[in-house]
Every structure is written in C-alpha cells, then in structure tokens.
Amino acid sequence: MAVTEIYNTANVKVGDLELNDELFAVPVNPHIIHEIVRMQRAARRAGTACTKTRTEVRGGGKKPWRQKGTGRARSGSNTSPLWRGGGVVFGPKPRDYSFKLPKKVRKLGLRMALSSRFSDKLMLVLDSFTLDEIKTKKFLGVMNALNIDNALIVVPERDDQLERSSRNVQGFKVVPTAGLNVYDILFHKHIVLLQPCIGQLEERLLS
Fold first, then answer.
1. How confident is the model over 123-150, as pLDDT tens digits?
2. What residue numbers bound the domain in which 111 lies?
3. DSSP per-residue letters across 12-31
4. Domain count of the chain?
5. Residue 116: inside a domain, yes or no?
6. Residue 173 resides in a domain
7. What is the dihedral of CA 138, 200, 110, 172, to 10 degrees?
C-alpha cells in the first residue's frame, strides 16, 4: 500500500496514512476520463436554443405575387427560408444533451482521477480544516501556509463557513465527499482531502 503524509493547517506533518491501492494506484485510461468529462459537461448544457421554422414565423398565407408575368422569381410564401424574416432550415430546437455512463465506469473514472493527482504529488491530506468564523482572510492564510494557490478542497460533509470563506477566492472550491467528481478534480491543480474523507471515498468507490 502507498503511504501519504498527514499535515495540519500550519503545514506541519502530524502523521502518516496508508492508502488503498485500489483507490489511489489505478492505471489511468484517458478515454474513460474523457467520456466522463464529456458526460458531465453535456449534463450542464441548457439546451434551450430555439429557432422558428417556416411554419412558425409570422406571415404566409397569401402568395406574394402572381406566378408569372412579373419578371421576378416565383414565390409562394414570405415565410420561405430564402426571405429575410423567413423560417430557419434545420435550426436548433430545445433538447436534452445529457447521457449516462454505467455506474462502474463512473466509479472507475473517479478512482483514476484521484490516482492521477496522487501520483503527480498534487494531493494533500489534512487532519482537519475548520474556521471559527466566515473570513476569507483566514482561509487565504491557511492556503498560503500550505503553499497552494489552486485547489479542490474535499470535506466529509458540507461546511457552510468554509464554503462561504472561499467562494470569493478564484481557483478554490469546497465540496463534500458525496459531491466529488472527475471534472472538478481535473479542473483544479491540487486536491486537498481531509483525513475522514479517505474512509468515505473507500466506502463509496470500492463497495
């Protein structure tokens, strides 16, 4: 099993922790990671773009001019896509872009993303991280002590004070273990895990 060091918020080592190789030593398959990120981004698309066809735009009915004898090209309706203000041919309509991947694939992708950050030495485990008040300055003080300027911080359960202290700082995001996902891991340079999160991740991804 791999071993990682545990630090406190003052960047002082306080112990060691054995990590499960099935969670932090998984070979990375870029194709699986790509498919999961594509799935997450597709689910976030609004899909509200909409255009009107020739049957939906205002107008139509009367033929603009007679078929022959005017010297102009024949025309049957002013809603034609060839006319200004006419309908759109094959334009976008509201739709759902989301699709699903098997649960086993999603779990494997998350383990790959965690393994990638650990192997690149971009993962840090903290014994705890709590703030006694909502204060951005205190949050930045901890991050400066840890020499981290961009990170995804994973906490055991939602921490409102920590979230609100970090939300105005660019490059940081706080998520509970249940909300951890591949896209957020790859979007941030570092990942900071609180020690209790390790057990929660093992229960979630290895069960």
1. 999 999 988 899 999 999 999 999 999 9
2. 2-28+101-205
3. -EEEEEEE-HHHHSPPP-HH
4. 1
5. yes
6. yes
7. -10
